[in-house]
Inverse folding.
């Protein structure tokens, strides 16, 4: 019975380790070209009915299924500093004078003094610098009514026992597409860029579910 259970569990664990990491880019990540309506025309020496582009038109992406090269040149830097302080000092003196004939002579002539000093100082600083460069070719998955192109794509690189996923999606204005059918990532609206890994090296850097469970309620 234990052998049967192990045989059933091992493939399931292997499948879980090889699963594709979740993504936030626009779906689907690729699209097939839509078939063009066939006109009642015959092929000629130059004109071909199944050829969807004119002979002298440049090969820039403009229809569903077309490919477009994205040059990823993302660089961001942010710095934040904050400093605050507060200080309060309070002093109080109380004395009991000496009065002839007043009962309680033992406390006459005493002096009482109280000091209160309260200080607070806080300082915070954070900095972030990110650089992401690369190239990925995506596919037009939708042509918006205003002519903009919704593109999405994925690149998978398998290295030894791990896999690297580069994903990109966004909205491209056709006027930014160069003659080489490429566009800079800084010119893409609603851009979503991901770089994720999948494998035992990446899994070793993630805290297990049992550790996360105990950290969720431990006060220290």
């Amino acid at each position: 019975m234990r052998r049967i259970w192990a045989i059933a569990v091992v493939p399931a664990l292997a499948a879980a380790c090889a699963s594709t990491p979740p993504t936030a880019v626009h779906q689907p990540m690729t699209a097939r070209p839509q078939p063009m309506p066939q006109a009642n025309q015959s092929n000629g020496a130059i004109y071909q009915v199944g050829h969807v582009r004119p002979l002298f038109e440049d090969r820039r992406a403009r229809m569903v299924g077309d490919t477009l090269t994205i040059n990823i040149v993302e660089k961001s830097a942010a710095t934040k500093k904050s400093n605050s302080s507060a200080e309060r000092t309070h002093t109080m003196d109380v004395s009991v004078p000496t009065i002839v004939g007043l009962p309680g002579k033992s406390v006459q002539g005493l002096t009482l003094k109280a000091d209160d000093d309260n200080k607070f100082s806080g300082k915070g600083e954070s900095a972030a610098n990110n650089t992401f460069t690369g190239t990925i070719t995506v596919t037009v998955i939708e042509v918006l009514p205003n002519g903009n192109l919704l593109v999405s794509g994925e690149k998978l690189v398998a290295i030894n026992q791990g896999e690297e996923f580069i994903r990109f999606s966004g909205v491209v204005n056709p006027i930014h597409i160069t003659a080489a059918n490429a566009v800079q990532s800084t010119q893409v609206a609603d851009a979503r860029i991901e770089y994720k890994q999948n494998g035992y090296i990446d899994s070793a850097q993630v805290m297990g579910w049992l550790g996360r469970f105990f950290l969720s309620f431990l006060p220290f």
